[in-house]
Amino acid sequence: MSEFEGLYGIWLREFKVFQREKSRVVSAIAQPIIWLFLLGGGIGASIDTSRIGNVDYQHFLFPGIVAMSTMFGTVFYGLYIVWDRKIDVLKEILVAPISRITVFFGKVLGGATDAMITVFILLLLGVVLVGISPVGVVAGLGIALLLAVGMVSIGLTLGAFFESMEGFQVIITFMIFPLFFLSGALYPISGLDPVLGTAVQANPVTYAVDGLRGALIGQSHFPLWLDVGIMLLFDAAMVLLGTWAFRRMKL
Amino acid sequence: MVVEAAGSNDGVMIAAQGLTKRFGDLTAVDHIELEIRRGEIFGLLGPNGAGKTTTISMLITIRPITEGRATVNGYDVARQPAKVRASCGIVFQEPSIDTALTARENLELHARLYGVPKAIRRERIEELLALVDLKDREDSVVKTFSGGMKRRLEIARGLLHHPPVIFLDEPTLGLDPQTRQHIWDYIERLRREMRTTFVLTTHYMEEADRLCDRIAIIDRGKIVALGTPKELKDSLGGDTVVLTMKEPPLEAFRALSFVSKVDVRDGAVWLSMERATSNLAHVIQAAGGREIATVEVRRPTLEDVFIRLTGRAIRQAEEGGGEGWFGAAMQYTASTNR
User: Fold this and answer.
1) Which domain holds residue B102?
2) pLDDT at residue B333 tops 50
3) Cα angle: A188, vertex A191, A192; to 5 degrees
4) Quick one: B34 and B88 in the same domain?
5) Are B92 and B189 part of one and the same domain?
6) How many domains, chain B?
7) Chain A residues with CB inside 8 Å of B112's CB?
8) Contact A92 B141 (CB under 8 A)
9) What is the ipTM of this complex?
10) Do the beta carbons of residue B113 and residue B82 sit within 8 Å?
11) Of B1, B92, B101, the CB nearest to A97
């Protein structure tokens, strides 16, 4: 019971912090819209729509933007524990008589909640902008949640190992951007050259983007069961990795 | 989590035997023996880097013990860490309050983490906010608090689950004198009302002297002296009276029964004696009407005890550890000033 109270306490803390950081919420919503109009509008003007299933590029891009928002938001959220450790906020939680696994799950829930709120607002905008159906909103939330759990776990795992924020740029450049670019968020994954194609298929984020595109605009490359199955496996692996990292994390 | 004292602790709250911590070649804590009783305010006094924080870190289970063993509230630190943690309130040296939350939210989070039952949570929080005089600021985000307010909130947080023992690592570091006084009062009140045991580290001599029942002076990982502040000061052999005067009658001073030693240094006469304040009149009488320019009565301080035991002042020990050119220079300056 005490573990559950602790879990709730940690989640509540994250939720309150998220509510208070209004600028973060605003930019989390504004940034995808900027991408959609400034990038989507520009590239859309010169693209052959027959290659992307005869939809307008902004429609094609929208699920990719939802994935991007989920991914970047959650990874940063996870990495942020480096800062929490540096200013000793996390110390109070780590010395409490609750298990590290509870702390980890509290943080995952917190990060996933933040992401879900942002994604929900984005999807509502999507209803207006690209005509997503109510069913699409619900399905989109489900798939984004699967992506969020795995990505927040990655962020927390890396955050547990870093001593300072200096390694962040390296992670962003060599891990997060490649995962994003190789996910099919910005371009269709059929007809790529073999090397790029293989990398795309090996990337778990690809299946989240594919699932989102299926749910939001009815266009997908893989069957839904495969997208969901791979995301579940990915989440399980990342959660395991994260709990291990938290258990060995030093104060 | 409900914490009751384990069966076999007969008044002993903390015990350590041969407690040792090594980091590679460096021995940060070197075979420390401690026995701290329930309701005691116990001080670990020493310069930064002496091993105070490392000792506490081992006792509260956040650093593994290299050698030896320790119990807190009857629980073995290495084998029952969760029970030890539930028995402890901890106020860290570095601020660890969550500045994004309000004062009340910080306490609520702590109550949940330590499993304080819901039924008494609210009342307990009210009580502690009042204790640390933060009732009127309970709903302000901690970001807006001054250093002293944050510290008080942290102390309230440390007390919230009514732990039998509270560890305070440099609780008043960097606080203004008034706030320090307040915090000392709270600590004394809690000990009186709840028989809480306190272990605090400090390098403020007057804090240790004023607050602690017993003090362990710790230097380079070892306990070099242990006792009540009075015992430690008395170990130096009483007070000193320093007189500046022309042609001091040294023989007359030596003849006084209560004077144990007469020295002439830096143009002054140094008399070691017992109860200097009541014997001062006899000293002046012994001067036989000669003009005395200045009289100074010096009672030994814990700083003097530290200097006697380690050969250096706490400040010096911090600044250069007595090693390296800076430490050597400091020691040279100190010795020429004396």
Assistant:
1) 12-232
2) no
3) 80
4) yes
5) yes
6) 3
7) 5-6, 8-9, 12
8) no
9) 0.87
10) no
11) B1
